[in-house]
Amino acid sequence: MNKKTHKYQKVNIQGFKHDGTLYRQWNNAIVIADDDEKLVLYLYRAKVQDIKDRKYSVTEPSIWFFYKKHFFNALYLLRPTGNFLYINMSSPYFFEDNTVKYIDYDLDLKDYADKELEIVDITEFKANKVKYNYSNELVNILFKEVNTLLDWKEQHKDIFNQETLNNYVSNLANDCLLLFKEKKLKYFANQYLRTNRLKTLVQSKHDNIIKLYTCGPTVYDSPHIGNMRPVLTSHIFAKANLFHQKAITFVHNITDIDDKIIQRADEEGVHPFEISQKYSREYVQLLKKYGIRTITHLVYVTKSLVMIKGYLNKLLKSNKVIYEDDGVLLDISKVENYGKNVNRDKDIDYEEANFYLWKQSDIQPLYSFNKYTGRPGWHTECAAFINNYFHGETIDYHGGGMDLKFPHHENENAQHQAIYGKDITKNWMHTGQIFYENKKMSKSLGNIIKADDFEPDIFKLIILGTKISAPINLNNVLIKQQENIIKKYKKIIFEAMLYNCDRIVVDDTTKEAVNHLVELNFQKYLFSIDKLISNYNKSLNKETLKHIYTLINLMDFNWHDHLRKNKIKFLELYRIWKIHHDNQDYIQADEYREMLLSESLI
C-alpha cells in the first residue's frame, strides 16, 4: 500500500520496463498534491539519468500526474504558447523508499495544443509485447485505458481540464515555485495563466465572447494620469469577466500619427516618428507597470493603414460621404439618429457637424488614399479598428474618457450607422475626468501628474472606490486613505500566507463580489472585501480568509506581487520573530518586528 506523501516533499521517480529493468530516474520532484486518486508532482531542473547513463535536467516547468488505479501517468510541459501533454501507458504507481515507481509499457499518447490526441510508439509497443511477453489481459487493460483517455479528452475531464491545470499553476506561483533566474522564464507565471485562461475561454462553445474596445492616447507627450483611467477601468472589467469564465476580446489603440505629434516634432526639430515611438514605448511600459495585461489587441494607426483604408472604402460605398478638394467627409444629414446618444439630435447644424474621414495635407508624414494625399481622420481610426476586430458587429462595451463622449464617440457611432445601420456599441463606459486639488490638470497651471510619477496601486484603489463616470479629485487626504487601505490589505494577505490560505476560491461568495465589477459597480466590490475582513476578524474562519485572498489577488496589486516573490523570506522573518517573542527575548524580537512593520505585514 502506498504511503501518503506531504506537500513540498521532494521525491524521486523511477521508470521500469516490464522485466524489472530500471530505464530512467528523475531526482528531486516536488509533491504538490496527494489525494485518494492521484499524486501530482512539480518538476523543474530535476536531474535525470537514463539506462544509457545520459544525464540531463528538466528544462521546462512541468507537472506530472500519477494515478493510483489507472494504467497511465501524464506529464504536462507548461508553455504559455500551448501546453504539451505526454501520456505514458503504465502501471499504477507505487511509492517506496521516497520514490515514485511505475512500469512503462511503451505505448504513449501526445496531446499538442489545438491538435487531436495522438497515439504514438505503436511499433515499439508491439515489439516489446513480444519481448516482455505482455499478457492478453494486460493489453486489453491498456487499450481500455486509452479509451478512458479519449473520453476524458472529449469531456474536458481531469488532465484535459484547462482550469484545473491553471489552478495548479496558480498555486505554484503563490508558493513561489515559478520564480526563475532565466530571462526567458522571468514572466512565465503571468504569461502562462493569462494566455491559457484566455484560450480556454475562447474555445468554449457555450459562452459568448464579450467585445470590448477602449480608446487609447495620442502619443505626443508623456502619458498623464488621466490617460490611465479608461484603460485601467476596462482592464478591471475584463479581469472580472475572465474570473466568471467569460471570454473577452479587448482591443485598445495608440494614435501614433496626429497633428499634435507633428507639432511637437517640429518644436523639437525631429521626425514625427521619433516622438510617437518614444511616447508609445512609454505608454506600453506604463501598461505593464499598472498591471494591465488583459488587452488582446494593442493596435497602432501607422501599422493599420491598409485596414483603415479598407474601412474608408466601405464608407464610400455607403454613399453618405462628401468629396471636397481637401478630403472626404461624412455627410451627417444622411446618418440616422446623429447626436441622439448625447441628446444633441435636435437643431443640428449638419454642415458644421460633418467631419473628415481623410484629410488632405502637404505636411509629412503623408499617405495616399484615392486621389488624396494626407492622413486618416481621428474619428475614423477607432471605428475602423472596431470594424476589423469585431467584423462589423455591434460591440458590447466601448470605453473612453468622458471628454470623448462628443464629438469623438458620436462620430465613431455615425460611421458605423452609415455602413451597417446600427449602433457601434450596446454600452458606453465613459470615465470621469481627473482633477488635482479641485482644479483641472493643464500645462498652463503646471499641475499635470505624469502616470509614471503616480503609484499604480494607489490609483487602482481610487478607481475602485469611485463611480466610473464620476470625476476624481486627487489630493493628499485621498492618497493617504488609499495608503491605509493598502496597509490593511497587506496584513490580511500576509495572514493568509501564514495559514496557507493564499488560495484562489471560486464559489458563490467570490462570484457575487466579482459580479459587482462586471456590473461596473466598483465601490460595492471594495465594500464586499471590507465586509469579509470584518467577518474574518470576528470568526477567524479560514474559508473567509481564502475569499479575501481571492478578491484582493484579482486586482494584481504590485505590492502583492512583491509579497509573493518574497513570501519565503517574510515567513521566515515572522517565524524567527515569534521564537524570540515566545522566549521573551524582546530585544531580538523587536528587531524582527521592525522588519515586519516596515513592510506593513503585522
From TrEMBL:
Pfam families (alphabetical): DUF402, tRNA-synt_1e
Location of the tRNA synthetases class I catalytic domain: 203-482
Subunit record text: Monomer.
Keyword ATP-binding attached: yes
Swiss-Prot/TrEMBL keywords: ATP-binding, Ligase, Nucleotide-binding
GO MF assignments: ATP binding; cysteine-tRNA ligase activity
Ranges of residues in domain DUF402: 19-157
Any single Gene Ontology cellular-component annotation: cytosol
Protein name as catalogued: Cysteine--tRNA ligase
Gene Ontology terms describing biological process: cysteinyl-tRNA aminoacylation
